[in-house]
Amino acid sequence: MLRPKLARAVIEDLRGKIAVAEERKKDVVSYYNYIHSKYKDHEMAHEEFVFLLEKEFDGRTLDEWIKYYDSYISYLEGELEKKTGKITNRKALVCCR
């Protein structure tokens, strides 16, 4: 079992990872919207649009990136729930002895 200070550190780490993942997801969507608007406004050729998408998105589509981040965030939230549940259960047991 984790000690309370270590458990709290793990929880804070998970919360930080969730925040970073949410921020990166927003960045991906924002970048796509930016270059797509440039393409729609005829400020960018189709070839350049496709090149930038492939370069920035590493061969994945926008939907694939969104699904990736949603899945990762969901996993982290599940881990966070497990860790916070252990601390809560422990406190309840200590109180009731």
| String of helices and strands | HHH
Q: Let me know the number of strands.
A: 0
The profile of the biggest β sheet is: none
Which structural category fits the helices and strands? mainly alpha
The share of residues in helices is: over 70%
Describe this structure in words.
With 97 residues, the chain is mainly α. It has helices at residues 4-40, 46-57, 62-96. It has one domain (4-83). The protein is built from three helices and no strands. The chain is rod-shaped and about 60 Å long. The relative contact order is 0.15.
Keywords:
single chain, 97 residues
Question: Can I get a quick summary?
Answer:
The chain has three helices and no strands. It is mainly α. It has one domain.
Q: How are the elements arranged and paired?
A:
Blueprint: H1 4-40, H2 46-57, H3 62-96
Helix pairs in contact: 1-2, 1-3
